[in-house]
Design a protein that fits this description.
alpha/beta; 19% strand
C-alpha cells in the first residue's frame, strides 16, 4: 500500500532550515533542543532579603518577556555562611559557564571577579566597584549593575545619625568584618574617624571573622572596651540578625545601614537601605540586556541611595536608653514599646530559593 505521507515534507524542512541559516538563526531542530540559559547567583548564605531580591529579579525578567519554564534557569549557590568557600565556589561556577553571574554583596562579587574576567557579572547591592568604573560609571571590566551608595553615603550617614542619637557618647564602637573586602583602611574609614573626632569622641574599632561565634566575640570585646554606642559597618544582610541578638545580649545601642536590622530583628536604629525590591527590579533590566547581547560597556552602573530612619522604641526600652525627642520626631518609622517587629514575610512574599545546580 503506498504511503500517505506528503512527499514534500523533507524538502520543506530543508527549505526552512536554509532560511533559518540565512537569517543567522540556528535550525528549527536546534532551537527546540537548546538548553535553558542559566543565571547563577553566588552569595554568602540563604539570607531572607536575598531571597526577596531573587523573587524581584525573576519577576522583572518575566515582565521583560523571559520564561523560566523553558528559556531561563535561576540557579542558587551560597557558601552556607562560610566566606572561605566563596572563592572555590566561584571557580567551579565559572567553569560551568552560565549566561550571567549575579551577586548582591561585596564578598561574592570579589570572588566572581577573581574567577573570571570574561563572563558577565551583574551586581545588585552595596559594592566596591570603583576600580572597574570610569568617571561616567561605565564598566571597564566584566561587571555592571545597580550599586547602593558608591560614594560611601551608606557608611557615613549612619554614623552621623548615631552621633545625633547619642550626643553625649565619647566612645563609639565600629564593628567590622575581616572577610569583607570593603572593610579596609581608606578614604571612608578616614571620614568616619573625622566625624567621630569632630564631636570630641574616640572611635573604637573591633573586627570579627567567621559567623556567629566571631560576631559574639566582637560584641563581647566592645562591651569590655566600654563603648557608648556602636555602628555596624555595612556587611552581608545575612549577619544582621546575629548582630541584633548580640547587641541586646551585651546591652549596647547600635545602628545598621539596613532597615531589617530594626524592623525584622529587633535592633535599635537603622538608617539607609529600606529594602532591595526596587534595586533588584532594576537589576533585572541589566540581566535582560546582557542576555540580549548588549555589551557591558554600554551599561553604566546605576547608583542608588535610598535612606530611611527607623527607630525601635521597644529595643530602646529593653536596653534602658533614652533618645532625644527631636531625634525620635525625625523617624520615618517608629516601632513602639510592646509592638512586635515585622514577621519575616510581612513585607513581601518570599518564595523558596531558586533551585541549586545539579
Amino acid at each position: 500500500m503506498p504511503s500517505t505521507q506528503p512527499r514534500h515534507r523533507p524538502l520543506a524542512l530543508a527549505f526552512l532550515t536554509a532560511l533559518a541559516l540565512l537569517a543567522g538563526s540556528p535550525p528549527l531542530h536546534a532551537q527546540t533542543a537548546a538548553a535553558p540559559r542559566v543565571i547563577a547567583y553566588l552569595g554568602l548564605g540563604p539570607s531572607e532579603s536575598v531571597r526577596v531580591c531573587m523573587n524581584q529579579l525573576r519577576t522583572a525578567l518575566e515582565e521583560a518577556g523571559w520564561s523560566f519554564d523553558d528559556r531561563l534557569v535561576l540557579e542558587w549557590n551560597d557558601a552556607a555562611g562560610d566566606p572561605a568557600r566563596l572563592a572555590p565556589m566561584a571557580k567551579a561556577l565559572v567553569a560551568r559557564r552560565p549566561a550571567v553571574l549575579i551577586s548582591t554583596e561585596n564578598m561574592s562579587t570579589e570572588a566572581l571577579m577573581q574567577a573570571t574576567q570574561e563572563l558577565p557579572i551583574v551586581v545588585m547591592g552595596s559594592t566596591n566597584l570603583h576600580s572597574v568604573l570610569d568617571a561616567q560609571l561605565r564598566p571597564t571590566a566584566n561587571v555592571t549593575g545597580v550599586s547602593l551608595g558608591l560614594r560611601g553615603q551608606y557608611v557615613l550617614k549612619p554614623m552621623e545619625v548615631l552621633l545625633q542619637a547619642f550626643p553625649q557618647a565619647r566612645r563609639i564602637g565600629l564593628i567590622e568584618n575581616n572577610e569583607q573586602p570593603g572593610h579596609v583602611e581608606g578614604r571612608v574609614l578616614t571620614a568616619l574617624t573625622e566625624r567621630v573626632h569632630g564631636i570630641g569622641a574616640e572611635l573604637v574599632r573591633v573586627r570579627f571573622k567567621g559567623g556567629e561565634a566571631g560576631i559574639a566575640d566582637a560584641w563581647g570585646e566592645l562591651a569590655r572596651q566600654q563603648v557608648d554606642a556602636v555602628m555596624i559597618r555595612p556587611d552581608s544582610s545575612g549577619l544582621l540578625g546575629e548582630h541584633a541578638r548580640q547587641a541586646q545580649r551585651v546591652r549596647l545601642p547600635a545602628i545598621a545601614h539596613n532597615s531589617w536590622f530594626a524592623t525584622r530583628y529587633g535592633g535599635l536604629l537603622s538608617y539607609g537601605a529600606v529594602g532591595r525590591v526596587d534595586m533588584c527590579g532594576r537589576g533585572g533590566h541589566y540581566v535582560d540586556q546582557v542576555l540580549r547581547g548588549r555589551p557591558l560597556a554600554e551599561l553604566p552602573v546605576e547608583e542608588l541611595y535610598e535612606a530611611a530612619l527607623v527607630v525601635n522604641l521597644d529595643a530602646a526600652q529593653q536596653l534602658g536608653v533614652t533618645l532625644p525627642p527631636a531625634f525620635i520626631a525625625r523617624a520615618d518609622r517608629l516601632i513602639r514599646p510592646g509592638e512586635r517587629t515585622l514577621a519575616p514575610t510581612a513585607e513581601a512574599t518570599v518564595l523558596p530559593p531558586p533551585r541549586p545546580p545539579r
